Each structure stands twice: as C-alpha cells, then as structure tokens.
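[Automated response] Your request has been received and processed.

Submitted sequence:
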Amino acid sequence: MDWDKLRIFHAVASAGSFTHAGQMLTLSQSAVSRQISALEEEITTPLFQRHARGLTLTDEGELLYTAVSDVLARLAEVEEALKNVQEAPRGTLKITSSHGIGTYWLLPRLEEFLKECPEVEVHLVLEDRELDLAQREADLAIRMRAPIQADLIQRKLFSVHYHMYAARDYLDRNGTPEKIEDICNHTVVAYGETAAPEIRDINWLLDMVKRLSQPGSKGRILRINNVTGILQAAEAGIGLAAVPDYVAADRPHLVRVLPDIPGPTFEAHLVYADALRQSKRVAAFRDFLVRAAREWKY
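Generated structure:
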C-alpha cells in the first residue's frame, strides 16, 4: 500500500471528514477524496461509510486505522531517538498557545530560550482553539485547562486571574461603577461567539450583564474574538472589559473596576504527547517554562 495514501487515510479518519483532513494536510477536499477512493480500489475494500454528517470507519477501516496509528507512533519514537543522538537539543519545535498567554506571557520570555537552545527552531502558533497534539498538529501546548486525554503529559505552570478594567479617561467621561448593577449602563467589551469556546466562563462579564440588565438599561455590548482586541478596546476608552491581571499590571492607565468582584481564574498547563517524553527539545522547553513560571512573581 502506498504510504502517502495511508497517511491521508489516517488524517481523514482522525478528522472525520475530507474537508477537515484537507485543511490539516493543506490539500483540497477533492484531492483527499480521490486519494481515499484510490486506496479503497487498491485494496478492494471500503474504508468509510459516507453519510450526511460526515464519515465513519468500517470494520476494515478501523483495523487499518489502528495499524497506521501504530506505525506513526513508532516512527515518531524513532524520529526522536535519532534526534536525541545529538547532545544538544535541536530541530523544529512547534508550540501552540492561546493568543493571550502566547502574546503577553510567553513572547516576552522566549528570547531567553532561543539563546539557551540556538539549534532549536521555534514555530509558535497562537490559536484559541486546541490543536491536536496526538496527531502532531503541535509538539507542545500551553493550555488554559488541564487535558483529559490519557496519552498527554501535563504540568501546571501558574494561575491566571481576571478582573474588570477600564481606561481612566473612560471612567472620567462615564463615571465609575459603584455596584455591580451599574455595569448594565456602560459599554461592555466581550468575547465574540467564536472565541475560545472550550474555556469555561471566558465570557463571565457578558453573562453578568445579561443576568442583571433591566428594562431601560442603557448599556451596549461590543464583541471581539480575542484578548488583544479586547485589551486595545479597553485602552482606547471604549468601555469595560475583562482583562487578565498580569496583562493589566503593565498598563497603569487601566483601572480595576469593582475590585472586590473577581472574574474567573484559569490554570495554565504545559501539555505534550507521551510519545515526546524523551525528546530533548521538548524537555529543554519544558524545563525553561517551569523555571520561568516559578520565577514569575506576579
């Protein structure tokens, strides 16, 4: 069997559709479909049941998927073993994190790691959605919740606390809320519908406004789909926003509003696949992150 077709088959089986597999492989949906059809003709066996909601594996497809998964896992182990023959960490390291943690916590510290490991080439992917580490969409992730998959190694790094903030000039123009019900008469900057749906309570401020609003409330809602946009809107004096405390700490023109009312707290975790346990580049970055989190005094 042709290995390229098997690789595409594995991606389709993991993604559950030709379209999503094509996005992972940077191939068109039609090209993926042709390769799967060619593989099924080659082995004279249907591998998928096609229906309106997507694809499911046949019994034969399940058997092949297990075999290809085993081969891929073994190849990953061999790849790491070959790389680890060298004494110093080297190779490409693909790291994924949310926009907020990646932009405001990781990037200011990343130069130190690059100096420590000059032969490691870092690819940083800032995505609020979680990439599939088991399918090697990334080598390592910083996530705002602990993973539930048994084949992922995790380590808690630090806690992120949210509060309500606004620019000083916004409060001068519109008044400072004195009780929680007052926010219903202010402009509130909230996360858009597509932002980080897997993060619990990420839109706590918007939920609070919806719960407390009464007929005649004069408040408005501005939705933005990532923390950078929300932060810039707050700094521009547009309205009240939920901002991580460690981000606001570097911006003295932002004022914590109703400081006794806390927002959610998220635990940042370092996560990587068990298959990369022996990887020198992953171990080097893990040790760097743990040290950076321990030294962080905020």
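Summary generated for your ticket: The longest helix spans residues 59-83. The chain has two domains: 3-83, 87-298.
If you did not submit this request, please reply to this message.
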